Fold each of these.
Amino acid sequence: MFFLASRGYRCIARDRRGHGRSSQPWNGYDYNTFADDLATLIETLDLKDAILVGHPMGGGEIARYIGRRGSKRVAKAVLIAAIPPLTLKTEANPDGLPIEAFDGICAGVLATVADGASDLFAQLFGTETGHARMVSGVISLPKDTPVVVETIFETT
């Protein structure tokens, strides 16, 4: 994001509800509400022809936003290692992951924060080392194009 902003592009980063400086409500942690929150941001800032970039959960959120609100204000959507709204294996989602996979991820993260986070990255990105670093890429866009960016990682 800093790469694009330093070259004159308008970049908007937001803290999803329950994250960073956003409010910490007790409810609303579902894709419909996240998509509605994103819509509120886009409409409040009157963004047009925005390029939405989402990484894991942000990708699912963007997909839900477009599904609910359409693409009238969106020029492009970039989904990076997106997590769909439902990843758990259920009768309605037979291709999902078994609950044991999520239990293992939670156990690994809770074991130690540093080692758990490293293991989580390895599981998400399929790396052997489990290391990830922030990246910036060269993207050619018109200078007046708004870009909304979730966190982007590259595995090493």
Note: Residues 2-155 form a domain with the Rossmann fold fold (CATH 3.40.50.1820).
Amino acid sequence: MRREIKQKWLQALRSKKYKQARLSLKRKLDDGSYGYCCLGVLAEVCGLNDWKTIKYQDGREDDKIALIHEGRKFYGNLPDECLEQISMRLDEARMLANMNDFSEMSFEEIANVIEQEISND
């Protein structure tokens, strides 16, 4: 992974600026604020910040917020081409998303794994 992106990501995960959420890159929380998966924080760090609330035909809004990239919607993973630009493998991204979503690891715990397991490019 590109060293400068990795360092910014680690700093962002540990900053307490981002609330943690599960099962979506970004979602609206019950209190009206927004929460992020660890990969959603990475999207923000990389400047991918075109988020769109999805509305149903009956007017209700989904709590999951889609990342819009080149006209496509992403909810759980980053676009492959974005991972390529930062030299991150898809299996690494999936591992971290699973730690966030299913192992329910904190951002601090995930940051520790990134430092130890994700190599610099």
Note: Residues 3-117 form one domain.
Amino acid sequence: MAVFTKTEGSDATRRVRPAFVLFAAVAVLAMTLFIGIGASANASQGDPTTALSPPSAKGTVHGTTTVHQRTSANSPSTTDSTTTTTTVTTPDKTPTTSTTLTTVAAAGATTPAAGAAAPSPWRGAGLVSLPADCSDMSTLGLSWYYDWKGSPPCPDVGVPFVPMVWGDWCPDNTGCAGALSASLAGSDSPNLLTFNEPDSASQSNMTVARALELWPYLEATGMQLSSPAVSDTAAGAAWLASFMAQAHAQGLRVDFLAVHWYGDCSNPSNLTSYLAQLASSYGLPIWLTEFSCYDQSTAVNTQFLQQVAPMLAALPYLRRVAWFTNRPYPDGYENTSLLDAGGTPTSTGLAYQAIPAAIRPDGTRVPWPGS
């Protein structure tokens, strides 16, 4: 093969010697083989967006496939989408596949104009007197609610309901998947609250090991899962730390923290500092699903709400709040109620009504539509 090249500073051409031609051909061939071997090695490792999760102790995660997509650069709003498909075999050998689509704004994305997207629920409550008092949600202008159960007690109120798996729903380990499904009948929520104060003998009273054993059933629902909601005590903190460490080691999924707080309301920073510590420790969004000034006066509860509300609204990791409770409740909660026994707002209830009920995508809190 003849190779011609231009001599620098001259218009003349010269023929390259055959030996050099042979050397160049060998070099090209070697480079081609090197690239082919590298591509083959990468292909043998599989698609980097597809990974096998480690099996859990009590359930097996067969595979998780994550596909990242970016919308066209010409789209008015550029986002990154992550579609995750997970196949889980629960302890009773029932394989279940769930798919979750998560969309987040990409770097440099165009943010929709304020008010362009529908706001999400933020201010809610744990309601203790349902279904008798479904109208309380309208009175209080709530944007979401729960009642420690799995099925909505007030399906026609137009306020989103979030179900809870309160404790061990299948202690004999028989028919756990079916029993869980039945307990959530009627709920269309994408979120699921789990295990109420498992560290407390008077509540769901569960060991970390048992919670982990049941967790694959919860994952198989495909819903976004809260952590178990421990008490705000040293025992609760230790329980949660153990659970989260073992869940991570077993490849189990926890999507957000559910937090309870009944502390000293003389200083609102007592609550915000507690939340900041949890956010720093676990790096997850937080739902404050129970809080109030336990065994303190109505005046203290009211003043605390007025002071802490703007502080809570400024926390970017705090995705929802829920006061305890809507009606008078015994054993130290008599003065925390938002409504009196007849359904009229208390001073605490009026303070709670003044808190914006919903959150826009840009983080601003706004009234709940229709409230």
Note: Residues 1-89, 93-115 have pLDDT under 50 and may be disordered.
